[in-house]
Design a protein that fits this description.
The chain is an alpha/beta fold. Helix content is 44%, strand content 17%.
């Protein structure tokens, strides 16, 4: 059986896509077709501000295999004013919404002061708690601080560290706090022993995969717009790291995503 036939036997969930991005405006149906052909059965379309969050909900009404997450990215946390947070809370009540996010801390770009980021993060954790939803957390160059906030304000509640790039110790702490770990395209870039060891240490029932498209194109596609069909390349790389078949990896991560997000 050829490669395409094998791909059809897999069921994959891309747990982090930005399909509302303008880069998909001209050909989204074709993008989704390629992803489905590669085995993707569900897409978690993630917002980063009010506009993109509302658009994620809109896409879910057009495409039944898209579900939505609504949130304010840490690089836009200065926009998380009381009125905006009320809008976010209203959006979170849509039947299409399966998570709050992406939210968190980003000390790499430092476009917003750390205290402003922290306040916006905590506010979104409170919305998630009030609505009984998991959180999709962005953490860049701020893992310790991110986990500190989660431990204080979100202990024991479901969530996922998206595009994970931490250590074995970070995995252990995140899992103890009730979190899942999401592997993305950077796992294909180079032999990063720290990341490989971390992903190998994730308990089987706490691992999910993503593309973060249109960002983070896997090796061999750098510089191109990323697409959800390439989550298969992430699955291949993670399976190799964990010493299992891609079929096993797909079945486990898909079951995990469904448990994490409920509606996915």
């Amino acid at each position: 059986m050829g490669q395409i036939g094998v791909a059809r036997l897999l069921e994959l969930i891309d747990t982090h896509v930005h399909l509302a991005d303008v880069r998909f405006a001209a050909d989204l149906p074709e993008v989704l077709f390629r992803a489905r052909h590669a085995g993707v059965v569900q897409f978690v379309c993630v917002g980063y501000d009010i506009e993109s969050s509302a658009e994620a909900i809109k896409l879910s009404s057009t495409f039944p295999d898209i579900v939505a997450a609504v949130g304010i990215h840490p690089n836009r946390s200065g926009d998380a004013l009381p009125g905006t947070l009320r809008e976010l809370d209203l959006l979170s009540q849509s039947h299409a919404v399966v998570a709050i996010g992406e939210c968190g801390l980003d000390y790499y770009r430092n476009t917003e002061p750390p205290d402003v980021q922290t306040e916006a993060f905590i506010a979104q954790l409170r919305i998630a708690e009030a609505r009984g939803l998991p959180v999709i957390v962005h953490s860049r160059d701020a893992m310790e601080q991110t986990l500190d906030v989660i431990e204080k304000f979100n202990p024991g509640r479901r969530g996922v560290l998206h595009c994970f790039d931490g250590t074995v110790a970070d995995v252990s702490r995140a899992v103890s706090l009730g979190f899942w770990i999401s592997a993305a395209g950077q796992v294909t870039y180079r032999r990063d022993r720290t990341l490989a060891e971390a992903l190998a240490s994730v308990p089987a029932d706490r691992l999910v995969i993503e593309t973060d498209c249109p960002y983070l194109s896997p090796a061999g596609h750098r510089g191109e717009r990323n697409e959800p069909s390439r989550v298969r390349l992430v699955a291949d790389a993670v399976a190799a790291i964990r010493g299992c078949s891609v079929e096993q990896l797909a079945a486990q991560t898909t079951a995990n995503a469904r448990r994490l997000f409920g509606k996915a």
